[in-house]
C-alpha cells in the first residue's frame, strides 16, 4: 500500500502533529509506503485553527502538490486530518479537498480534534453544511481515537469507522523516585485557560493556604498568546515559589520532570481535546493523575491511580490533588495500563490493521 499523507508535522509541537510524525516514522516499518506533503499552516500554538492571510495559499499549494503526487505515483489512499470545530479551519478543509480529493482515490480521515460534526449541524449555514458533506463526507475510512469520539466521524457518513488509540514510544523503566520534601505537581502542555492551567494555579493557592509548604506546581510549556502569559504571571506571582514555569521542555528535560514528580495534573475542558498525549506520558511514567471527565479521558484511565475533578472548579481540584497525594504510589499499575494500551506498538498495529482492511 502507498499512502499519501497531507498533514502538518512539528513545529508546533502538539498532539496532532506529533501523531502525524509518528505515522510517517512508523508505517514504513509496517510495510506501508508513505508519501508526505507538508501542510505548514500553524506557526505556533496560538496559530492553530486560526485564520491568517497566508494560510489559503499554503493550503492550495500543498493540496495541488498532493494531487500531482497522487496521480504520478499512483497512491492507494489519501490521509487527511479534518478541522477542529472552527469556521476558518473548516474552510481550509473545503479548499484542500476541492483541490486534491479526486474520484477513485480512497480518502482516510483521522479525527484528532472532536466537535466538527456538532458544529456543522448546529452552527454552520445550509451552504456550509452542504459543502462540508461534499468535501469530507463519505470517506472510505474514518479513524477515531476512542469509541466516545466517533460522533464527528459518523456525522459525515464514512464507509467504515475504526478506533486507533494514540500511542507513544516506551520511555523505559521508571527511575526510582527519591522522596520529595513536598508533593511535586506537574502540568505539561499549552498554557491555555481551557486546558485548566489557571484553575490549577488557583487550586495550588488553596492548598498553600491550607497546608503551607506541602505542594509545588511546575508548569512546562508555552502560552497560546500574550494574554494567557500575563494572566499566568499575575496569578502565579501571588504564590511565590509554590508555582514555577520552566518553559518548553525538550525530551531530556521532560523525562527529568516526569521522573521527579508525584502527581500529574491536567484539569482540562479544552473544546478540541481528544485523547491527550500528556496523559499517556504520565501513565508511562507511573504517576498519579488528576484530571477531568472530559471527552475520551475517563475511558483511557486505569481503574486505580486516577482522580477526577469537576472542570473549572479550583476547590474541587484542590480536593482531588489532596486525595491523590495522600494515596499510595501506583507501584507499576499506571505504567502497566500504558504498556497494555498506549504503546507505539499498539498504535501502529491498530493503524496498520485499519488501513489494510478494505471498506465494507
How do the SSEs run, as a string of H and E? EHEHEHEHHEHEEHEHEHEHEHEHHH
Average residue pLDDT: 94
The CATH superfamily title of the largest domain: Glycogen Phosphorylase B
Largest sheet: 6 strands, parallel
What does the secondary structure layout of this molecule look like, with pairings?
Blueprint: E1 2-7, H1 15-26, E2 33-38, H2 55-73, E3 77-80, H3 87-100, E4 107-111, H4 116-122, H5 126-136, E5 141-144, H6 150-155, E6 161-163, E7 183-188, H7 197-210, E8 215-220, H8 226-237, E9 243-245, H9 251-260, E10 263-266, H10 277-284, E11 288-291, H11 297-300, E12 306-308, H12 314-326, H13 333-341, H14 344-356
Parallel strand pairs: 1-2, 1-3, 3-4, 4-5, 5-6, 7-8, 7-10, 8-9, 10-11, 11-12
Helix pairs in contact: 2-3, 3-5, 7-8, 7-12, 10-13
Explain briefly what this protein structure is:
The chain is of the alpha/beta class and 360 residues long. It has 2 domains: 180 residues, 3-Layer(aba) Sandwich (Rossmann fold), CATH 3.40.50.2000; 159 residues, Rossmann fold (3-Layer(aba) Sandwich), CATH 3.40.50. It contains 14 helices and 12 strands.
